Amino acid sequence: MTWIELAPTVSAAFLASLVECVEAATIVLAVGTVRGWRSAFVGTGLALAALVVLVLALGPALSQLPEQALQLFVGILLLLFGMRWLRKAILRGAGIIPLHDEEAIFKSETANLKLAQTTERWGVDPIAMATAFKGVLLEGVEVAFLVLAVAAGSPALVGPAALGALAAAVLVTIAAVAIHKPLARVPENTLKFAVGVLISAFGIFWTGEGMGIEWPGHDLALIGIAAVLLGAALLGVRLAAAPAQPMEAR
Amino acid sequence: MGTVRAILHEIIGLFVDDGSLALALVVWCALVGLLMLTVSGVTMTAAGAALLAGCVAILLVNVVTAARRLRTARASH
Question: Model ipTM?
Answer without folding.
Answer: 0.88
